[in-house]
Design brief:
By secondary structure, this protein is of the alpha/beta class. It contains twelve helices and nine strands. The strands form two sheets. The protein has a seven-stranded mixed sheet, sandwiched between helices. A two-stranded antiparallel sheet has the order 6-8. β4, α6 and β5 form a beta-alpha-beta unit. The longest helix has 16 residues. The termini are far apart. The N terminus is likely disordered.
Length: 285
């Protein structure tokens, strides 16, 4: 148990955005904001009644309710989440909704301990962009699905996230985040790689769907860059990427700039990718 606890602690410390109460609330809001896009993805895959599904990195809510509705009372959903507070919040969420065909287990997405080849579908949303060694997560997801099963990812690529007019303070904070991520083995531009990662894990029939948004002044995700840098403030300062006064100056300037309705804010590029695990007949061909 001690060794497992150490693994959990080390992995938790590497999670890009941390596990603070503020971050948990942001993830709960995100579940609502991205529900329509996830619904579209699940429509393409055709998850139906009776399916057995696993969501890796479900956080405090994730796609659990969407998946529960699709598999129905004869199906089953398992959420896997590393953060103990997020697991507890997700379990309360399910209990409050009266959802009985879904459970959440605490565990690492790269080593879930779940039975291999036992799921019809495995999914993760905005997980790989926040962790080191994402290939291990994809390999685990591929191992968990049955032959003929599907693995689906919904990931971000920071290349398009920008504001106009340009703001030097935005660029300084962005550079700090990019540097911090590289130092910790995190790829903020992983969206462009996920199709290759699925193929490398042995999946076939890879499909892709790119998404990009303009965050209007009243859009709930318009301040997302502010939320991210706020989460990482202490770590950025501790590593000397910005001093405390520099960070405060940049943050205040960016807050004012985003608050201006004339400022154009574009989202990250999001990429949905999914592929199928070859069945036995295809493997023998």
């Amino acid at each position: 148990m001690l060794a497992q606890s150490v693994i959990f602690m080390q992995a938790s410390e590497q999670y890009f955005l941390g596990h603070s109460p503020v971050e948990q609330r942001r993830l709960q809001q995100q579940a609502q904001e991205l529900a329509q896009e996830s619904t579209w993805l699940f429509d393409q895959i055709g998850i139906g009644p009776g399916s057995r599904v696993v969501e890796i990195g479900c956080g405090p809510q994730g796609c659990l309710e969407l998946l529960s509705d699709r598999v129905g009372p004869e199906g089953y959903v398992i959420g896997v989440e590393l953060s103990e507070p997020a697991v507890e919040t997700a379990r309360r969420f399910l209990a409050d909704r009266g959802i009985t065909n879904t459970e959440v287990r605490q565990g690492h997405g790269a080593a879930t301990g779940l039975e291999t080849q036992s799921f019809d579908f495995a999914t993760a949303r905005l997980v790989l962009v926040n962790i080191p060694e994402p290939e291990k997560i994809v390999a685990e997801m591929a191992a968990l699905v049955k032959p003929g099963g599907v693995v689906a990812l919904h990931e971000a690529d920071w290349i398009a996230h920008l504001c106009d007019p340009a703001l030097p303070e935005w660029d300084r904070l962005m550079q700090a985040l990019v540097t911090y991520s590289k130092e910790n083995g995190i790829d903020l531009f992983i969206g462009r790689r996920i199709a290759r990662m699925l193929r490398a894990a042995g999946l076939t029939d890879i499909r892709l769907n790119p998404l990009v948004h303009v965050y209007e002044p009243d859009h709930s995700r318009r301040p997302i860059f502010l939320q991210f840098v706020h989460n990482l403030r202490d770590r950025i300062v501790e590593r000397g990427l910005l001093s405390e006064p520099e960070f405060a100056e940049c943050y205040s300037s960016l807050e004012r700039h985003i608050g201006d309705p004339n400022t154009f804010v574009m989202s990250h590029i999001f990429v949905q990718a999914w592929g199928r695990k070859a069945n036995d007949e295809e493997n023998c061909a």
